[in-house]
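Final paragraph of the annual report: two paired records, presented back to back.
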Amino acid sequence: EMGPKELVLSKKYEKKQSLKCCTFGASSLQERHLATGDFSGKMETWDLEKGDMPVYSVKAHSEIVNCIDGVGGLGIGVGAPEIATGSRDGSVKVWDVRQEND
C-alpha cells in the first residue's frame, strides 16, 4: 500500500517453514490469492484476506520448490487456474488448484 511519501505494510503473515518463492499469479485480482513454494517441496495457495490456512496445499516435489508461476487472469479478467512449479528434483509440474486436496 502506498502512503503519501512511503510504502506502508498492509498485512504480515508468518509460517513455521521458510518460503523459497511465491507468485501473485495464483488467481484473479478479485480473489487475491498468493501461491507459495517452500524448502520441503510443498506448494500452497493462500487467501490474502484470511491468511491463516491455505486454500490449497500439496506436497508438490521431493525437494525444494525453486520456482512457481501462474496466470490468474492478468489483464484479461480470469485466466487459467493452473499453477506451474519447478524443483531441484528435476521436474516441472502443473497444478489445477480447483481440485480437492488429498
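The closing record of the year follows.
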Amino acid sequence: MMTRIILPSMVVAKKGIIINISSVNGDIATPKAALYSATKGFVAFFSQALRDEYMGKGIIVQCVLPGTVLTKMAQTASKENFLCVMPEEYVSPALAQVGLRSYTYGHWKHGLHMKKKKVLIYLKSLL
C-alpha cells in the first residue's frame, strides 16, 4: 500500500529508494511456517517485479531477507546462537548494500547460513 502511495512521486522526481523487508524464510520453503514463508516470498517477488519495472528510472528497489535478529519478535532466540545478530550489528551492513544489491540477507552470517541451507537442499535433491 505504501508503495502505491509514494511511487508516483518517485517517478516524477526520477529518484527514490524502496526497501522491502522479507525474511530468509521467504527465500526457501519453510516447513511448519508455510503461510509465513509464502507471504515473505511474495515480498521478495514483489520487490523483484518493481525493480525490473522501474529499472532505469532512478528508483532503487531492494529486498532485505534477514535471518534471526534479536528483537522482541525473536525473544526465544539465544544470544549464544552464532547466526543470531543484535539489531545494531544488523542495520549498518544491511543499509550499506542499498544501491549495490537488489536482494540481500543484510548480514554476512545470514548469507552464510542461507548458502549452507541451499547447498544442503540441493544435495538432498540428488539422493
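The chain has a mean pLDDT of 91. This concludes the annual technical report; the extension proposal builds directly on these records.
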